[in-house]
Amino acid sequence: MLCRIFPGDAQWTKCCSTDMDNRKPQADYMQNMALATVAGQAGCVTIVLIIGALFAGMYLDTQLDTHPLFTLGLILVSVPVSLYAMVRLMLSSVAAIKHDSSPAEKSPTKEKRS
Is residue 8 part of a domain? Predict the structure, then answer.
């Protein structure tokens, strides 16, 4: 059925709603917030690593009088390091979130009678 009613109307939500009535909205909201937090952490780790490499390179360049060498080198090295750190953080955090949010399925055990 095509919805020709404007969004926000009660009939629009009735005819265009998906099969999400069985899911708990609070659990979905919490899982989405946890995933957004992980994405924010990964972005912060990337920024901290790259800025740390920038300042370390600038410090080494001023101490050793090799001005663009260490700054460029450390920034170029920090890019793959930050990508690796971001992927590791995302994989471990998402696995923990999925493990915490999955329902504990306990199968009923049948006792054997002798």
Answer: no
